[in-house]
Design goal:
2 copies of one chain form a homodimer. Chain A has helices at residues 31-40, 52-57, 103-112, 126-136, 153-169, 177-189, 193-197, 201-208, 212-218; strands at 2-7, 22-26, 45-48, 64-69, 72-73, 95-99, 117-121, 140-144, 172-173, 228-231, 234-237. Chain A has 239 residues and is an alpha/beta fold. Chain A has one domain: Alpha-Beta Complex (putative 2-phosphosulfolactate phosphatase), CATH 3.90.1560. In chain A, the strands form 3 sheets. In chain A, strands 7-2-8-1-9 form a 5-stranded parallel beta sheet, with helices on both faces. In chain A, strands 3-6-4-5 form a 4-stranded mixed beta sheet. A two-stranded antiparallel sheet of chain A has the order 10-11. In chain A, a hairpin with a 2-residue loop joins β4 and β5. In chain A, α4 (126-136) packs across α5 and α5 (153-169) packs across α6. The longest helix of chain A is centred in the last third of the chain and has 17 residues, at 153-169. The interface between A and B is medium-sized, with 27 and 27 residues.
């Protein structure tokens, strides 16, 4: 029996007992989708860092540097935060130092709260992620990165999708209103995720920045089977 | 044009600019429902206080004292937090000093953040509340009290209901994912709110404490037309 809890914002994480639980960090548009994509495309590791300065410093250690703030790639870095920058052999065998507006600090927060494992969540490998979590029979916290600590729809939708998928694979105990709401919202939206999210604040924000292709990509369901999680404080291929 | 924002937990209130906005504090089970009921049944005012000690002290100033923690009435107080304690003339013409687990601190927080007006939200006077807010043409923040800072379903449902009702009365601008989600969840649940909420954590908590009658009462839609809001730091009849 796996207990599943959804945390709707990093600012609410202190209310949950994270220790020894499996935490899935969720920043669908786009950090954790990009991390999963980079690992699937052969990156050897991704180090999530809080500040652009920290990410920049990793250049001298042979890392590709990647930085995004407010949806934009920062100048002076090798990459921004688009999954398309990780394809066609560009990250094959490479390590990446990544800092983003929302997602990367959640990875650190989950690690600091002594989670058993910290995974990177994405629709792209949803089924593989659910299989891994179900096989581990450890309680799960789904941590939505949100937008600058505010609630957002796309991370909530993924939390609902993953909670539903785990529940279809193994016995679960869901006594968390945020998880119940997430599952209901996912059910409502699942037939047309892109259409549903067009009303969301972040979709609009990224559309203005011409990232529509990224968003459509990030909302694809279970297109690869790689699972990405923290090993020695870097995101690596687990499955 | 009224901008509507939903804040899903008092722990997220700092992310919003509250100053000069109308704030509706929402603690459906049961603080704000009880406050609206008390005013509708003729209480002259309700002073929301953080601690039982503060509420107790008001006894010497002629207040009825009311205190609830974790769903239970505290010993040594005149009342707990049940709307039924406010009926049949029991509070007619009286002032009440009230402290509860979740709702009362939100009233103080909204006042401290310099809201233009602070209202007490309940399904019981939903239409009257929406009419008042629509008539004022001031931006609105719907502040869910939650349960000890965690997200809950019943406050979210009411936020969705009120946002929908205001939108049916006047032009609104809703660019807040929490508001969009709340409206969708309300739409999903509105045909049977009691049935929908039976899965929620707080409904289960209160059921164990035999408060089912309270919950069915608090989920009634627009049964009176009194509007309750802060005047000189006490909740009073506004309409």
């Amino acid at each position: 029996m796996i207990n599943i809890e959804v945390v709707l914002s990093p600012a609410l994480l202190h209310l949950s007992n994270v220790k020894d639980k499996n935490v899935v960090v969720i920043d669908i548009l786009r950090a954790t989708s990009t991390i999963c994509t980079a690992i699937h495309h052969g990156a050897s590791s991704i180090k999530a860092l809080r500040t652009p300065e920290e990410a920049k410093l990793m250049s001298s250690h042979g890392y590709i540097t990647a930085a995004e703030r407010d949806g934009n790639k920062l100048e002076g870095f090798d990459m921004g935060n688009s999954p398309f920058e990780c394809m066609n052999g560009k990250v094959q065998g490479k390590s990446i130092a990544l800092t983003t507006t929302n997602g990367t600090k959640c990875i650190e927060a989950a690690e600091n709260a002594r989670a058993r494992n910290v995974y990177s969540g994405s629709f792209l490998n949803l089924k593989a992620m659910a299989l891994k979590l179900a096989s581990e029979q450890t309680d799960v916290i789904l941590l939505c990165a949100g937008w600058k600590d505010s609630f957002n729809l796309e991370d909530t939708l993924f939390a609902g999708a993953l909670a539903s998928e785990i529940s279809s694979l193994t016995e679960t105990d869901i006594d968390c209103d945020a998880a119940l709401m997430s599952m209901d919202i996912y059910n409502l939206a699942k037939s047309d995720l892109v259409g549903y999210l067009k009303k969301s604040s972040h979709y609009k924000r990224l559309s203005h920045l011409h990232h529509e292709e990224d968003m459509v990509y990030c909302l694809q369901h279970s297109v690869f089977e790689t699972v990405t999680g923290l090993v020695d404080s870097e995101m690596k291929k687990i499955v």
